[in-house]
Design goal:
329 residues; alpha/beta; 7-stranded parallel β-sheet; 9 helices; 13 strands; binds NADP nicotinamide-adenine-dinucleotide phosphate
Length: 329
């Protein structure tokens, strides 16, 4: 069994670590989170099924040897560098939910190059994945193009019920904010769904399409009636979620478009991929894919694919296809 480290014990990290133990996909041998309320706590108090005797460490230095690390700390590559760099230096395979890591060359090319070099030099491997970015707007539509001989446009639509997601997600899509606060947060950055542009860049590069600048937009959606959410009831006139869009086109008119909606009180959650060209392809997932369940699953299911790839910095297009893993009996 692989020895696995969990780095970051927010809601996602705890879910991943718990699922790792429940599915017996490896042996959890250590966990880190510097949050003052977590350091030193028995891990089994935070993660059901975690081995007795493990305590939350404040930093990576105190962790035992391992083959794999799961990193669920931040959406931003610059925040994750002090974690990725030493883990790759130890030759680990690192799977992370960091959104920018799904296509790090878009905004962080120098950091991406540094990580790639570090990984190759020390036999480490690094992959950014998750439900989105990682799968629904990247790996899934890319695979769908396999049966297409002419691609004119590729559109992915994701409409989800924000109220059933973990609380940090509900906060980052603005549930309960006033319009003014939403505008202020949106202008400040690090708000809303991260990774839409990375998904466009992943698709364009993986399909060999040279696209022009990526256009993106974000707008709030207001509640018309009291709407339940994990952050309390949302009063009419306050934000019940958001709509985001990213779009890019090639000089010869091929287009990539991603539409993302996360709403409390969402009536028809769904995921869909629509490719025009020949043949036309429509994939529909009625009800949509639950983002937190899927992210935890894919981070774990990706481990064997990453270990099977050569050392270096990877994407969902450079590792062997990720598929369900059964785990030890
Ligand atoms: N790609 C995808 O599809 C996908 C899906 C779901 C989530 N995500 C991303 O995954 C990340 C985790 O989600 P979450 O809801 O669990 O976020 P969260 O609530 O922000 O949890 C992150 C945890 O990591 C801790 N942390 C920060 N720096 C650390 C470090 N250097 N070492 C160890 N732990 C550290 C944080 O501690 P403090 O509180 O002290 O900072 C916090 O407890 C987020 O960035 C989220 O956007 C991606």
């Amino acid at each position: 069994m692989w020895r696995i480290l969990q780095v970051g014990l927010g809601p996602l990290g705890r879910q991943v670590a718990g699922e790792l133990c429940a599915r017996r996909l490896g042996r959890l041998v250590g966990a880190v989170d510097p949050h003052p309320e977590l350091v030193g706590k028995p891990l089994s108090e935070l993660v059901p099924g975690a081995p007795e005797g493990l305590r939350v460490a404040a930093g990576l230095e105190a962790l035992p040897d391992a083959e794999v690390a799961l990193v669920t700390t931040s959406s931003w590559l610059s925040d994750c560098m002090p974690i990725f760099d030493p883990l790759l230096g130890r030759g680990l395979a690192v799977v992370s939910s960091c959104e920018e890591l799904c296509w790090p060359w878009l905004r962080q090319a120098p950091l991406a190059e540094a990580l790639a070099e570090r990984a190759r030099a020390r036999g480490g491997r690094l992959l950014g994945t998750g439900v989105n970015p990682g799968f629904l707007m990247d790996a899934l539509p890319l695979v769908a193009t396999a049966v297409v001989r002419e691609l004119r446009s590729l559109r992915v639509e994701r409409v989800q019920d924000a109220a059933c997601r973990r609380l940090p997600f509900q906060q980052k899509v603005g549930l309960g904010l006033s319009l003014e606060d939403f505008a202020e947060r949106a202008a400040g950055g690090r708000f809303g769904h991260a990774g839409l542009e990375e998904s466009i860049a992943f698709l364009a590069n993986s399909l060999g399409l040279e696209v022009g600048p990526i256009e993106s937009s974000m707008e709030p959606v207001l509640a018309e009636r009291p709407t339940p959410s994990g952050l309390g009831s949302i009063a009419p006139g306050r934000v019940r979620g958001l709509r985001q869009r990213a779009f890019a086109r090639t000089e010869d008119g091929r287009s990539l478009e991603l539409r993302f909606e996360a709403l409390a009180g969402c009536e028809a959650p769904r995921d869909g991929v629509h490719i025009t060209g020949e043949p036309e392809i429509r994939l529909e997932i009625p009800g949509g894919v639950h983002g937190d369940v899927a992210t935890s699953a894919i981070l774990l299911n990706a481990i064997p694919s990453l270990l099977a790839a050569p050392p270096g910095l990877h994407t969902m297009a450079s590792v062997p296809p990720v598929r369900w893993q059964r785990g030890a009996p």
